[in-house]
Amino acid sequence: EGDPHKLSEGMMIAGYCIGATQGYVYIRGEYALAYSRLLKAIEQAREIGLLGKNIFNSGFDFDIAVHSGAGAYVCGEETALLNSLEGQRGEPRKRPPFPPVAGFHQMPTIVNNVETLANLPPILLNGAAWFTRFGTENSTGTKVYTMLGNINNTGLIEVPMGITLREVIEFYGGGMKDGRAFKFAQTGGSSGSIIPQELQDVPMDFASMAKYGVSMGSGALLICDDRVCVVDVIKVLLNFFKVESCGKCVPCRIGTKQLHDAFLRIAGDVGTMDDFERAAHVGVQMIKTSLCGLGQ
């Protein structure tokens, strides 16, 4: 929304590198502002010859189309996104073949997040050494986070990889709201992980988080204080997944319902150890047998 030209330029660079002549941006239907600004930026790029045929007499053809999805969460999974882009149901595909072999209309396709592509222009402009100054040895560069929840300052930040959750809360978030104690953070949107208080000083990079079985996800950070019940949060997240499951594979379609039912009982003070044990068992089976990363 703030710099759509950086995305279109990053897509051009990626297209040039892999020999693609057409790019697609898939935007959820709810993001009307991003959609309108990107369309305007693409039209501006076409007007000055940055998109289209034989760009600046280079012999390189590249154009970008924008597709607004219907809002299905599962379309964040790359093969479900490709199906939706083709006008089919937003359901994951069996793999192999993977998208680089057979993607959009069975043609070789590279699927990347906006954040990844938007990093390309400044890296080429300033050099790889400039980018790797930020972050840690194994996770270089920066990461964009959306801060939500019980903190004084919410919003979007871009910080070096490897920053700790405590630093994010105290420096960028302005501390916990009402002076309450930090209890846990839910990272990466609905399909992310829960970071307990004990891990708030662990560097937030891919390697460090993985050591503790925690995923960074897409960069959303829901900060919760000591008034928030983790069981209630899990119950809400499981209801979301139950509703958003595409239903294609049995483990996810049935498993999300069973997990949600178990946590409804637990949250309602009628749960037993059997509910916890069954939820753990179902979760393991979903990881092993679900078709895509959302069920897993």
Structural account:
With 296 residues, this protein is α/β, with parallel strands linked by helices. The strands form 2 sheets. Strands 4-3-7-5-6 form a 5-stranded mixed sheet, with no helix packed on it. It has 10 helices and 7 strands. The relative contact order is 0.09. 41% of the residues lie in helices and 14% in strands.
Mean pLDDT: 94
Strand arrangement within the widest β-sheet reads: 4-3-7-5-6
Largest sheet: 5 strands, mixed
Instruction: List unreliable stretches of 5+ residues.
Output: none
Strand content: 5-15%
User: Which structural class do you get from the secondary structure elements?
Assistant: alpha/beta
Q: Helical region count?
A: 10
Helix content: 40-55%
Rg on CA atoms, Å: 21 Å
CA-to-CA gap between the ends?
A: 31 Å
Shape: globular
Count of individual beta strands: 7
SSE run: HEHEHHHEEHEEHEHHH
Entry summary:
The protein is an alpha/beta fold and 296 residues long. The protein has ten helices and seven strands. Helix 1 (4-18) packs across helix 4, helix 8 (230-244) runs antiparallel to helix 9 (250-267) and helix 9 (250-267) packs antiparallel against helix 10.
How would you summarize the topology of this molecule?
Blueprint: H1 4-18, E1 22-27, H2 32-47, E2 63-68, H3 78-85, H4 114-126, H5 128-132, E3 142-149, E4 155-160, H6 165-172, E5 182-187, E6 193-196, H7 206-211, E7 220-225, H8 230-244, H9 250-267, H10 273-289
Parallel strand pairs: 1-2, 3-7
Antiparallel strand pairs: 3-4, 5-6, 5-7
